[in-house]
Design goal:
Elements: E1 2-3, H1 4-14, E2 27-30, E3 36-37, E4 39-43, H2 48-57, E5 61-64, H3 81-87, E6 91-94, H4 97-101, H5 106-114, E7 117-122, E8 132-139, H6 142-153, E9 158-160, E10 166-172, H7 180-186, E11 190-193, H8 198-207, E12 210-213, H9 216-220, H10 222-234, E13 239-241
Parallel strand pairs: 4-5, 4-13, 5-6, 10-11, 11-12
Antiparallel strand pairs: 1-3, 2-6, 7-8, 8-10, 9-12
Amino acid sequence: MVKIKEVYDFMDSFAPFADQGDFDNSGFLVGDINRYIHHIGVVLDVTKQTLAAARHLGVDLLISHHPVIFDAQKSFTAGDTAFELANAGIAALCAHTSLDCAAGGVNDVLCDLLGIEKIELYPTAEYPSGLLRTGFLAQEGAEELAEYVGTRLCTDVRYCDGGKAIATVAVCGGSGGSLFKDVLDAGVDAYITGDLSYHQYLAAADKGLTVVAAGHFETENPVVQVLAEKLKQRFADIQVSVPEQDIPVDVYLPDLLR
């Protein structure tokens, strides 16, 4: 058997919780950290679906990327996800921006999937440990890059054409819009991320920066399986599973586009 504190310390060793953003709530959020466990579940989000799957599998520690408690709460009642976790006897450990920054974390896994070469950390004011990644990925232009990213991640993408051939790229999974100014400062040809605002597309076009937004879930979820394998290697005596999670965003195509 393994104590949750051992799992916490292991996570902290390669994705230090101290590296999280000021707004974040990574760490041990639900349960008794000194409890012994026998089954870890790894998910991107703690949702009704992943909680039900975890209960079915007999998971007693759920590790998620997005914190199950993020904004301040004034109540903790039936129906609330964190309450239902505790009521089911399932503890929660969440590694959000700490795992984004980590070597081998969200952004390195995304770079590997995309075949980015000569990857480097790009320190920013908020994330001096390096949330943003830069590297090389030669593409003829924006359309070719968008098709390439969509194929690699098996998803639809949105993009803005910066109007030039692409050699250097910046990469950040999830809500990469917050690093948009840092990407401009990095002087790369293209930016690959999960989410961007409309006004950031406008600014990108004005600055000659190609941007490709491939979806929050799609750019972050690949780390889940990688993290599960890492936990299996470290804690060989207990079970590690990946409870099923559906993509929470559907795409509607009118008949004329089918």
